[in-house]
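Page header: ASSEMBLY MODEL / three components / 1103 residues total.
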Amino acid sequence: MTTLDPRIPEGPLAQKWTNFKAKAKLVNPANKRRLDIIIVGTGLGGASAAASLAEMGYNVKAFCYQDSPRRAHSIAAQGGINAAKNYPNDGDSIYRLFYDTIKGGDYRSREANVYRLAEVSNNIIDQCVAQGVPFAREYGGYLDNRSFGGAQVSRTFYARGQTGQQLLLGAYAGLSKMVSKGKVQLFTRRDMLDLVIVDGKARGIIVRNLVTGEIERHSAHAVVLASGGYGNVYYLSTYAMGANANPAWVAHRRGAFMANPSFVQIHPTCMPVHGEFQSKLTLMSESLRNDGRIWVPRKIEDARKLQEGKIKANDILEEDRDYYLERRYPAFGNLVPRDVASRAAKERCDAGFGVNETGLAVFLDFSDAIRRLGRKAIEEKYGNLFEMYQKINDEDPYETPMMIYPAIHYAMGGLWVDYSLMTTVPGLFAIGECNFSDHGANRLGASALMQGLADGYFVLPYTISDYLADQIQVPRFSNELPEFKAAEDGVRARLDRIMAIQGKQTVETFHKRLGRIMWDYCGMSRNEAGLTKALGMVQELQQEFWSDVKVPGGPGEFNAELEKAGRVAEFMELGELIIRDALNRRESCGGHFREESQTEEGEAKRDDDNFTYVAAWEYMPGNAPRMHKEPLQFEVVQLIQRNYK
Amino acid sequence: MDFKLKIWRQKSAAVKGRFETYKVSGITGGTSFLEMLDVLNEELIAKGEEPVAFDHDCREGICGTCSLYINGRPHGPDDRVCTCQLFMRRFKDGDTIIIEPFRARPFPVLRDLVVDRSSFDKIIQAGGFISASTGNAPDANAIPIPKRNADKAFDAAACIGCGACVAACKNASAMLFVSAKVSHFALLPQGKVEARERVQKMVAKMDELGFGNCTNTYACEAECPKGISVENIARMNREFLSAKLVTDK
Amino acid sequence: MALAGLFLITFLFVHLGINLLLLVDDGGELFNRAAHFMASNPLIQLFQWVLFAGFIIHMIYGIILQVQNWLARPSRYKVEGYSHLSPFSKFMIHTAAIILLFLVIHLVNFFFKAKFGHIGEVNYEGMVLEDMGGLVRAQFQETGLVVFYIFALIILAFHLHHGFQSAFQSMGWNHSRYTPFVKILSTLIAILVPLGFIAIPICIYFNLA
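Prediction written out in full:
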C-alpha cells in the first residue's frame, strides 16, 4: 500500500484554484493545433469538454456508444443544477454550497475539489444561459430557483423536469458547432474496449464499431474518460440500458486506480419494481419532495390490507398515517439527503409497513400541496412527472398518492483522479461521474449536472493544458505502433473467447443474477457476513459466465448481445471490487451503510479515526486488488456527525 | 397476454429485408413494449436464432433512442409517449402487432429495426447552436427574458430528436424537428444574433439530406412524443422567408 | 406554392361572382355583359396571363414537391399511418390531378370556344355580344357533364379545405389568436365557393333559373 498524493495547490482553500490557474502551464495556439485529445463519452462532461477544448484549438476526437451524442444519459437528469448565485437572496454563497456538498457527502470528499466545484458553479449557469438553455424564469424575466434535498437555501436552477436534457442539448450544440468547424471528429456507435499506453502515457484507445463490428485504433496526446457511472452493475437502476463501465474498467486494468467503488447512490424516489420482465427503474425527480409528503400507515394491519389490495391509500385516516421523515428529521423533513431518505424507506418496509403488493413501496402524497396551492400550480411544476407516473402505473397521482421506492441511481465512486482530474495513468483524465472526486459518500441532488459541466467547461481545459504543455514536441502517434497492435489483438482475443463459449445461458440472465446479488448484499444496507458471501457468489458467477454464456451471431457485425456480454463481463469484475471496497470500509458513511456501524437510533455512524481516507484500488492481474490510501485532510471544515434532525 | 408479432428483419443496410412472424406469450400488462421485445429476444437466443435488433437506451422517454413504427404509428398507438413508455396493457390479448423500422431516405436501415438517424446531427451541425464559446458569458440574469418566451422556447427545446415526425410524415419531412430547434433559439434574445444565418443553413442542410417537404398534414404533431407544436413550423417558415428577403447577397 | 394558391383562390372568387350573374333572371344579359368586359378589357387581358402563370407555378411547384416527397421515402410502410388532424391534406396531389383534368375540359368547353371558336351572338340595344350565357345553358343540358362538374367541384372543395389554411401556415402566419379563425374561414370557403359553382349547373339543368 502506498499513499496517494492528490497534488493539491498551495494556499488557503479559497485561493487554491486561482493559484493553480495562475501557475498552470499554457500551450500557445500554434501548438494546440498539433495536439490531439480523445474524449470518450458525450454526456455533460464529455460534450462540454469536447466543445471547450476544440474552441481552444485542440483537435478532439469524441466517442460515444449511442447513435448521437445528444442521447447520453445526462439527458435523463430531471430536477436541476445547483449554483451559488444567491439570486433568491436567502444567504447562499460559494462557501455554503461547498459546505453543504462536503457535509452531504458525509466528509468523504476532497475539500479542494469541492471548493473549486462550488466556485465555478456560477460560471456554469452563465455559460448555459448564453448557449440558450431555457431555464425556468419568473414573470419579471429573471431566473427562478427551487430548493432541493440536503440544502436549506433555494439554489437549484431548473428547466421544468428536464434540466439534464436542456443542459445536454446546450453542450451538444457547442460540440456540434465545433464538429462543423472541423475541430471535433465524431465517432458514434463505438464501444471503447481498451486503452493504449505508450511509454507509460495514455496515447490511444481501441474501439469496436457497433454497426460493422470492426475494431478501430485511435491515437492522441491525451485521453479523457467521460463515460459516466457504473450503476448498471446492479441490473435494475435508473441508468440507461447501454450505460457501461467498459472505458473506466479497461483503464483500471491498464493501471488507473478505482476509488471508493462501494459508494453508490440509492435514490429514494423511484417507481417501485412491478414485474419480472422489468428492465429498468424510472426515477421520479427529487424535486417532488418539495411538495410531496412521504408516509406509510401507522398501523401494521393497515399496511397488510394495503399489501393485499383490500384498501387504498385514501381509505387511511390522517391520524393513522406515519410521516416518518417529518417525524424523525423535523429540521429537514421530507428534504433530507438521498441516502437518509432511502434508508428510512427501507427501514419502514423491512418493518412490514410497505404499501404495495411486494411490500416494497412508500407513499408520496401531494394532497396537502394540491389543497394549499391548487391543482393547477402542481400541474405547472410537476405536470410531466405526474403524466409519466400515470402512464407507467396506470394510476392518477392527483387522486391517489404516488408509490415510490429507492433505486440505484448514481456512482459516487469512480476512477481516482488528482486535483487536475488526471488518473494514476499519466495523460489519462477522468471527468464527471466517471471519476470519484467531488461527492464523497453521497451526492446531493442537482450536483451531478453541476460537476459534469464544471469539469468539462471550467476545470479540464486548464488542467489538461498544464499536462499537454510538455507534449508539444511529441509528434502525432501512428496507429501502427506495437502497443496499438497488441491492444487490438487483446480485444479481438477477448471477443473471440466470448463468442467461442456458446453455452446455454443468455447474457441477460447473468446480468440479472449479478444485480440480485449486489442489491441484496451490497445495496442499501451491508454487513460483513453478507458481503463475504456475495464476494464468493460473484466470483462463481464469473466462472459460470466464462463457461456457459451464449452469444449468437458473430463479432464482425451488428451484435447487441456481444456488446452486452462484454459489458456484463466487466460489471462482474467491478461488482467484485465494489464488494471488496464495502468490506474494507467498516464504517457507515453516506450511501454506504454498514450495519455494524450505527447509532442506537439506527442512524449511520462514521468512523473518522480509521476511515477518513479514499480507498483507491490497483488492479493486480490474477490476484486480489491492492488498496492504496489518499488521506483526506480537512483544513476548513470540521468533521461532525451529520444531523438533519 | 399472448401476441403475434410481424417484425421487419434485415441483416444489414446492403441486403433486402422481409417480415417474419413470431409469437410471445405470458406478457403482463405492466410490461413495456421494449421489455416484451426483450422477452422475445431471450427466447430467440435460447432457440439459437438471432435476436431482433432495435434501438433503445434510457427507457424513460427522454433520450429519443427508441423508435419503431408499430401498427402504422411511430411509437405505437398511445399519444405523446415513446415506445419505451408504451405498455402492453394498451393492446388486447391475441393482437397481431406489426413492427417496422422508421422509414425515410435519410434514415437508412442498419439492421432489423435499427435505423441511422445521424442526419439529424448533421442538421444541428449546420447551424443549430448559439456560438457562445466557453468563458465568454455575461451574468445569467443580465438579460431578462419574458417568462412567456422562455416557456415557449422550452416547449420547442423539449424535442428529443427521435425522428417520429419524419417517420409519421407522408413526405418524410423533418420540418417539425428543424423548426423546433430554430424556434427554440429564435425565441430567445441570445439566439437572435445568428437567427437569419441559422435558419437558412439548417433548411439548406435538411433539403440536401433528402428529407421531404412539409405539406401541413400535421401527422408530425399528432405523433410527436413530446407534443411539439406545428406552430414552430410556421415560425420557421416566417424566419426563413424574412431571412431570405432581407439577407445581403 | 402557397402564394400562387392564395392567388388562385382570389381568381375563384371573381369567377364565381360573374358566374352567379347567370342566375339573374334577365335572359343572361348581365352575365354576357360581364363576360364581354372580361374578354375585352385590356387590363383583364393582361391579367389573364398572370393568372396562367399562377396556374403553371402552382402546378410545377406542386409536382416538384410531390416528386421530392415520394423520393424521400423509397421503401414504404406495410401499414400506412394516418393523420387525424388534416385528412384532406394527404390527397392534395390526387385532388389536384382531378382538378387539372376538369380544368382542361372546362377550358375546352368554354374558354377556347369563346376565344377561338364561334358562338352565337346576341344584341343588347345595338350592342352585339357573344352569347356566353347561351353557351353555358346549352352545355349544362348534358347530364354527364353536369355530374362531372359537380364531382370535380366537390374535389375542389377538398383541395381548398386544406389548401387555404395550409397556405397561411406555409407563409408563416400561424398565431394562436388568428389561426382558429383562418381554419374556420378555410372550411367556409371550401364549402361555399364550390357550392356556388355547383348551384349553376344544377339550376340550369333543372331549369330553376
